[in-house]
């Protein structure tokens, strides 16, 4: 969604992206003051992978879309999709 809004500045896009992150990752992204979404998203993905919970043994199976398409967590972050329903326009906390 943020890539489709041409009037949004890069900084505004980064701030909008941050709103959908979990608190720990949001704080880390804010500290680094990224000026573009590409860097912010790359960092958020890297941070999420390297700071996974020690109790987390196996990543859940991605939700199936259609008959043969799976959407990964990384793809949700890149495409600004809800982690639960995989639809754009909202995040898990506000999923209908």
Automatic annotation (TrEMBL):
A molecular function (GO) held by this record is: zinc ion binding
Annotated SUPFAM superfamilies: Retrovirus zinc finger-like domains
Regions crossing the membrane: none
Q: What is this protein called?
A: CCHC-type domain-containing protein
The organism's lineage? Answer: Eukaryota, Sar, Stramenopiles, Oomycota, Peronosporomycetes
- Alphabetized InterPro entries for the sequence: Znf_CCHC_sf
């Amino acid at each position: 969604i943020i890539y489709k809004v041409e009037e949004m500045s890069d900084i505004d896009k980064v701030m909008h992206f941050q709103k959908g992150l979990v608190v720990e990752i949001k704080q880390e992204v804010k500290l680094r003051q990224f000026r573009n979404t590409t860097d912010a998203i790359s960092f958020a993905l890297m941070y999420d992978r390297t700071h996974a919970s020690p109790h987390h043994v196996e990543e859940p199976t991605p939700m199936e879309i259609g008959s043969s398409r799976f959407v990964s967590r990384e793809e949700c972050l890149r495409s600004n999709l809800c982690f639960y329903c995989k639809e754009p326009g909202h995040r898990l906390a506000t999923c209908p």
